[in-house]
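Sequence in, structure out.
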Amino acid sequence: MRIPERDTAVFSTSAIDLFASALGAFILLVMLLFPYYRHAGPQEAFSKTQDIMEKRRLASGDLDDLQVERSKLLSQLDELTQTNQGVASNISRLKTQLNDINSQLADLPTPIVSPVATVEEIPEPKAVTEGIEFSILGLATEKKSFVIVVDMSGSMIQYEDLMVRSVLEVLSNLNESNEFAIVGYQGNPQPVLWALPNDNTLMRATPENLKLAADYTRQLGRKFVGSTPTHFALQAAMEYQSQAVILMSDGEPNSPPGFIIQNIGTLNQFRQTEIHTVAIGDYTHNRSLVLFMQTLARVNGGDFVGVSR
């Protein structure tokens, strides 16, 4: 018996037709879309698009930051507005109280004083220096020991002779019943102190010590440089066992004047050391210096004077 032959073809004619049709469709689509692909744009246009997108992103971030800053400023403005309203309310209340007091004073009857028939004898006025132990440069005190604090900042160069003469005038009025020390100060740029004696003690005002102090003062006049650390110098002067301090300066201190006055006043609350102040040079043109030195002296039981020649 003969076995029939089998057809072993992998693809039939129908499959080949299908593949051919698909390839033809693909080629047709490529040909139709080719003009659009050709005009899609070069790489440069794509890069520009990326740059624009990046700028937009950065601009959006800056906008967010500005919005946050704006919110902070609005919050601060609200706080200041509330504070200002509170201050205005207090001022209005104080004005009302003042008007009430003025009205009460106006309603009070004015007392009528009868004339005095007899004339009392006016006692002869006492001398200005009566009871004064020490008087120099317009300063008067009954204290016996002193620390002379000398400003040695760079601005003092123009008043070197005036400063030296002022210190020497103070020394010339001392005698062996007095004790003293000299403290020069400057910022160079850190605070620097020059002291006689140099161990935070006082020396007796003997003729020998006064001559030594005069020579020392003349040497200080050749070392003027730097800034004015007055607060540092006053703190150092308060460490001496003296009854009075004499501050000589031509300019405003490095630290805020109000802070110095408050701090030194607190340190001196129980010691009660007199602090006298001497403005050197053209002090009349420096209102801030005069106000600082006047207040410092008044708060600490001392006097203020100015030396301009």
